Amino acid sequence: MSKSNSPNHRYGESEENRHSSSGWSKRTRFFGIILTTLSALTFSLNALTLKLLNHLHPFNLGVWTFLLMTGFSALWTVRRKCKTNLETGNSIALLPSVDKNKTIALLWLRAFLGVCALTLFFYAMKFMDVADALLIDSTSPIFVHIFAYGFLQEKCAISQVFATVLAIAGIGFVARPPLLTGDTQYNADVLIGCVLAFGCMLCITLSLIVLKFLETVPQDVVTLVLGIWGTVQCLVLSLLLGVLQFPTHFEDICKIVGTAVLFFVGQTLLTVALKHEDAGPVGLLRTTEVLFAFVWQFVFLNVVPNIYSILGAVLIMSGVIITLVRKWMDTSGGGNTSIN
Questions:
Q1: Where are the domains of the chain?
Q2: Where is this region: Disordered (predicted)?
């Protein structure tokens, strides 16, 4: 690991600390991998909790979830500012001074896309299994490359096109059309769930594209804006639809708090992991979220995946792995066969 890429160099530590032993470097690298795996575990548990709350209206659930996220993010932001003030005596700005108006607009756009993604995922949980919904959402790394090719003029390798075909084929298996199952009628719930999960994936993809322009903005600020927007949006829609209710059952309250905590912890673990590991391995390990989801729904919901879900998982995971391995190779100076 070079000096410029080492965590110690990034955090501006002394020259003595930068020349730490190779054993510490290895532990640091494994630390990033462990954090990524824990992040995937946390997100899969979050999805399971949402499934257990599918008796609540998604907008009503969103109000309390985003409100709690706002509180957690605000506390984190205040802590960071106070810590910086004590250590340096200087106050830090929440946003970069360059292109502040553009940054604010992108923050709200990212928040809107994030809220739409979570809301669509809430709805998808009502119509399909946890693992199947997460499986479709996990195709976002593939479609990020396709969108980046169209909007950011980035190169698109032939392997990424092949990965996209695999992902679409995998989604087709998860959707279980009559052509595959031999049934005379389409399962409407599965179709609706797939459409909602696919919409969630598109929002996640666009959100990741927007995040490329927000790399200089601290994670807690991004999450804070997401929480504020989500609270307001879900509150307005809940009032318009007349579905706003305060959870009265203690079990539901615990699950809602758990959902917000798991989402916030998962985001934090992922952010810290990226400080210790490259994006390629992190993205690859995040796909274990789907495997965890299959285990949780079997243990807690007694749902056994059918052959179509398994085949879809194999195709989609293959596409995701191809995409992320290709990205890792490009970052390391590998091949460059691409569509210009």
A1: 7-331
A2: 1-23
